[in-house]
Specification:
The chain has two domains: 13-236, 3-Layer(aba) Sandwich (Rossmann fold), CATH 3.40.50; 257-488, P-loop containing nucleotide triphosphate hydrolases (Rossmann fold, 3-Layer(aba) Sandwich), CATH 3.40.50. Helix content is 50%, strand content 12%. The protein contains 19 helices and ten strands. A five-stranded parallel β-sheet has the order 2-3-1-4-5, sandwiched between helices. The protein has a five-stranded parallel β-sheet with strand order 7-8-6-9-10, with helices on both faces. Strand 2 (69-73), helix 3 (89-92) and strand 3 form a beta-alpha-beta unit. Helix 1 runs parallel beside helix 9 (216-236) and helix 4 (108-117) crosses helix 8 (187-200). The longest helix is centred in the N-terminal third of the chain and has 25 residues, at 13-37. It is elongated, with a radius of gyration of 26 Å.
């Protein structure tokens, strides 16, 4: 793209001033429409060092109410803490909420291209990261985000002149670092890497716009024109459904819930003996995964009163409390509903060597949100593939993803509901919503079967815990977690 780039004709100065005034007013006028339509706008500035990204950004945001935008500056080395999370983590936690702008002063491009240029990322690593970026930009676009990407382009000669001018002044020389000078000396090599990246991530839903950045006001006008055009199109198309993508991940066969026998039991004596033995084994494995920096995600879904809480308690009873977190997932808060549905789970991912246990998960999208009408049909149908992509990102990062469905029958649920209702110290566990959900048992079972079938991938399979006998389910869960962690640690 850069090598084939043809500059647009810069208008005369008086025309430039007039058009700038018009486009600035147009952007200002879009603010309330963006808020009303709940359109999240993600604007990414990339480009050559000293190309003027900061100054142009400063000019553009003057046209927006400060309450409607934030700026994320990502041009800093990833800290040791950040490197203990997936590559996309620090960017995903910064995505804008509905009805607001988020401007990125460099985003994921710089981390990837710098990594290639300085030998930190090899060919396979580059391919994996550009694929992840393309997936997440498409997901954001599919979920109603407007993603606008601008690359500030200047010549080698122009870059050198700007760096020299900055170095010549005491008040600006601090703005030039060795990386800037290195880039100018290796301009052609950088051009090749940048060009490849732009081509590999130039998506229909999130295209690249190359900006002639030699003149700051001309650069601002180009960006305002493209940005306003993008906002106008997004506002007009906000109600359009998105095509459902074909699943490309290998799925494992999964039995339907009604075909799973639930008569498994375990004696008191065997339960106590197995529990002690397995918890001791898991305790040792927790130390090993911490030492080897292996992240673990354990996801629990299941019927109300199926025994998820007790099951989780037996897992955590074997773990060092400093190395795990249990996330009880309820209905999303307003600031969570205003973002991509996976955002609140990106925020809760474990560091390497730590364990995150989710008591209910991202699968709410294709169960309760689907059946209660909290999202559109297009949203939940699209979510199966988006969830598979999310879990693939986690496993490619090196995480062990263990997903449990805790299964009981309708009669067992009724008996447990009744027991909770009639036992004062248990009444907090039962709500009117539980009873209402029970009336939709058949609808939920249909949705769960579809969920299990469409997300039982080879890299993140489902495990059904038969929980009519809760003790049996607890032992089974412990065995599965131990087996998966042993495999991750290279043990037989």
């Amino acid at each position: 793209m850069l090598r084939d780039y043809v500059k647009a004709q810069k208008p005369e100065e008086d025309v430039l001033k007039l058009r700038l005034k018009e486009e600035r007013a147009r952007l200002s006028g879009f603010q309330m429409k963006i808020k009303e339509k709940k359109l999240p706008v993600m604007v990414i500035f990339e480009g050559w060092d000293a190309a003027g990204k900061g100054s142009v950004l400063g000019s553009i945001i003057k046209n927006i109410d400060p309450r409607f935008f934030q700026v994320a500056t990502m041009d800093k080395p990833r800290t040791e803490e950040e490197q203990r999370y997936p590559f996309l983590y620090r960017y995903m936690v910064e995505i804008p909420e509905a009805g607001k702008f988020r401007f990125f002063d460099t985003c994921w491009m710089k981390e990837v291209t710098d990594g290639v240029l300085h030998g930190r990322i090899d060919g396979d690593g580059y391919s994996a990261r550009t694929k992840s970026i393309a997936v997440i930009e498409r997901q954001l676009s599919d979920n109603g985000y407007l993603v606008m990407k601008f690359f500030f382009h200047i010549s080698r000669k122009e870059q050198k002149k700007r760096l020299e001018d900055l170095l010549a002044e005491k008040n600006t020389e601090w703005r030039v670092n060795e990386e800037d000078l290195w880039q100018n000396r290796h301009y052609d090599e950088c051009m090749e890497v940048f060009d490849r990246y732009l081509n590999d991530t130039d998506l229909t839903c999130a295209p690249w716009y190359i900006i002639d950045a030699k003149d700051a006001k001309w650069a601002e006008l180009q960006i305002l024109q493209y940005l306003n055009q993008g906002i106008d199109t997004a506002l007009k198309n906000s109600a359009l459904a998105v095509p459902i993508r074909q699943n490309t991940f290998r799925l494992l066969q999964m039995p339907r819930l009604k075909d799973i026998p639930l008569d498994q039991t375990i004696s008191d004596e065997k339960y106590e003996k197995e529990l002690k033995k397995l918890q001791g084994e898991l305790r040792d494995l927790h130390n090993e995964i911490y030492r080897k920096k292996i992240p673990v995600v354990i996801a629990y879904e299941g019927w109300d009163a199926a025994g998820k809480g007790g099951n989780i308690k037996r897992i955590t009873g074997a773990l060092d409390p400093r190395g795990y977190v249990v996330h009880p997932i309820a209905s999303p808060e307003p600031h969570e509903k205003a973002r991509h549905f996976l955002w609140r789970f990106w925020n809760r991912l474990p560091k390497t060597g730590h364990i995150a246990i989710f008591d209910r998960t991202w699968y709410g999208r294709v169960m309760v949100e689907r059946l209660e009408g909290f999202c559109s049909e297009n949203d939940w149908q699209r979510a199966y593939n988006e969830i598979n992509e999310f879990e693939k990102e986690l496993t490619d990062w090196g995480a062990v993803v263990i997903k449990f469905w805790v299964q009981i029958d309708s009669d067992t649920q009724l008996a447990r509901f009744t027991d909770r209702q009639n036992t004062p110290e248990k009444q907090w566990k039962i709500t009117d919503e539980d009873w209402r959900n029970r009336e939709k048992w058949d609808l939920y079972e249909e949705a769960i079967n579809e969920m299990l079938q469409k997300t039982n991938t080879s890299f993140a399979p489902w495990y059904v815990l038969e929980s009519v006998d809760k003790r049996y389910a607890r032992i089974k869960a412990l065995k599965i977690v131990i087996e998966r962690l042993k495999k991750a640690c290279g043990k037989k």
